[in-house]
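Researcher: Next sequence.
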Amino acid sequence: MKERNNYYLAAFTFLLGVFLFACSPEEESVPSSKMLDSEVPSDFNYETLKTIPTELTFTYSDLPMALERFELYADENGEDLLFTGVTDMEGNFAQDLVFPIDVESVYVKFADQPVSNGRTSGLISLVFSNILKHKFNREVKKVEIESIEIDQESGKCKWRVRNPFKEKLSIDYSLPKLGEKGRCEAPQGDSFFYTRYSTKDCGICNDQSEENSIKASFVRDGKTTIIEKMCKCFCKEIVKYYTWPSCNRKASFAFEDLWPNAGDYDMNDVVVETKFKIKYKIINFRTNVEELKIYYRVKYSGAGYHNGFGIQLPLKPDLVEGVTGTIDNSNVDLNYEPNGVESGQSLATVIVFEDTRDLVNQMEYHNPSEIQEVCIKFKTGVRLFDLVCKFPFNPFMFNSSDRTELELEAPVRSLEVHLPRKMPTDLADMSLFALGNENGDPKYLSNPGRYPWALLIPMSFEYPKERINIKDAYPRFEMWVASGGRNYRSWFRYPVDEKVIKN
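Model: Next structure:
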């Protein structure tokens, strides 16, 4: 990870008793190529996220709950939101969802409902297996009418009628201020009808004006029941937010920068702590992402090289409207398109910062950067699922200054370090995969040995001190690897305090 220089190495040895923790690129000892004592299973990839095929069915009295919004939480208090979804017309939701590996169960509740009420009876706990599959059946004993959507373009409000009874009901409704009256037939199950609505104050979702209210009545068994509802639904101006990895978590990326050669595996050459926040709209039950904000801070850079950090998105570059907040360095020669993405890439690639030294002082343990923000605005056409199920996208570190060992083999920007299983960008020099331990495998795992140069930790990472192997700073790490990821999934929660830095 750091450059070797015998002269300074000798000086460092002499002064070690005085400057025990002082370290510079030239003072670093020769990296060790051995990361673990245990054998790494051949199919292990150091994945700290898990993709769970999810099949949920929502019914009431064995009838489908159509277009029903629900929420998944990581905690039983309903505070750490993981995901918000909506069922289809048959009451089903089927999607691969990505969760931190240490989340063993999720808690489900209906959106916009209190945590504990007569309908949901609080949060419902689901334990993961190979698939998250569950059927929720609720007893609904009365007709429910809900305003679920507003479409300003058509001038219509969509109402859902939930009829648990076997007979078909005739529902009379009126909108007093709009002077609109009508009748709809409500067979057993979920059905829909449309009314006009007032555009006045539509941007305020909880507007209590009468223009946005409805009064409906139906007769059953000779008894008339009146239902009054406010037009509280998805107005066009109302936006939603999705936070990854969750509301109460952060994600950390930790890199060894000597790739494709072996490092010392203290995993602290570049440590970036992140949180992603998506702003999106729901229109006609279709999502449209407006922007993605990346909040990050560089926790540490224990490296002799100048390193940059970027993220490649699973989208075409022309879907990005603009990028703001990136940190440029005049000494780094990178090229950008007018919309702010990196030039020459088939997928939208955002260079978050070009050099760690613009953010932190190298080798200073307790000097993390301030929280920074990069904002990526999108054109129309990016759906929420285009992003949500592909986190953390493809983050990578690159060298942004001279590397004497490699300057003859490749331009410095083309040397990239990615997470295992992630692919290089179009600007990476693929010839480097023939060097060092990579041996032509474009998945950033050493072969033989199968050690990574980058890790994703699904929380704020307490990184190892200089030259302390991650297996020594986190004893459960090696047991996790040896088990093929089946055991010790929360290894990153159990550091040896005197061997890590907490900031």
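Model: The CA atoms of residues 282 and 288 lie 6 Å apart. Residues 239-278+299-316+345-352+360-373+384-461 form one domain.
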